[in-house]
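Supplementary Methods. Inverse-folding protocol.

Structures were first reduced to a discrete structure-token string of length 207. This string, shown here, constituted the complete conditioning input.
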């Protein structure tokens, strides 16, 4: 995994490093998305099969999606939990499964790195569903700060480190749907995939 060379030269103006990469500069980057296999998990049998595929993984992209709240005082639990391996993304529909023991074990395993951005909120909301001791989480925004990068969000870091942008068009869609749309599945899978790629890219930067 190579860091985007455009932003790792000796030029005096490196967007994202010498200064924050602007929204316009991010929008100039080509759009990318996860195009590999995606498994949407709703049943216990599907969960068992997914756990078999995730066995032995030591680095997973991580994200959650929650139904948006538009009224004051309205809130919802996480609808989805996404975990991305090197060759497949798994989307767990928590409204069907709950935060089951196999998922809690992954979230509590210090030997499995869960890489994403803005993880404190995700972890806190998942703990409201079922208690677990979080371990092995790596917030790429925090790692980016240590590396001297000025952009800390998922979209900005993708542009700075990977040279592409990701869509945020489905961000406020209804993630609590019984059946996710193809657009929702692609969006959710891409966020998990990017989290994993960012971790690999940041490993190449000396802190």
């Amino acid at each position: 995994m190579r860091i985007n060379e455009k932003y790792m030269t000796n030029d005096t103006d490196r967007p994202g490093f010498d200064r924050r990469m602007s929204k316009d500069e991010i929008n100039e980057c080509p759009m990318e998305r996860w195009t590999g296999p995606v498994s949407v998990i709703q049943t216990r049998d599907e969960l068992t099969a997914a756990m078999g595929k995730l066995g032995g993984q030591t680095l997973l992209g991580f994200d959650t999606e929650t139904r948006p709240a538009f009224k004051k005082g309205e809130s919802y639990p996480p609808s989805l939990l996404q975990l991305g391996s090197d060759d497949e993304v798994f989307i767990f529909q928590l409204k069907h499964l709950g935060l089951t023991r196999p998922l809690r074990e992954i979230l509590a395993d210090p030997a499995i790195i869960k890489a994403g951005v803005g993880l404190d909120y995700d972890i806190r909301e998942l703990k409201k569903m079922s208690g677990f001791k979080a371990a092995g989480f790596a917030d790429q925004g925090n790692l980016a700060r240590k590396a001297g990068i000025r952009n800390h969000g998922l979209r900005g870091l993708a542009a700075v480190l990977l040279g592409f942008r990701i869509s945020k068009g489905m961000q406020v869609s209804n993630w609590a749907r019984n059946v996710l749309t193809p657009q929702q599945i692609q969006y959710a899978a891409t966020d998990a995939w990017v989290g994993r790629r960012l971790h690999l890219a940041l490993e190449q930067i000396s802190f």
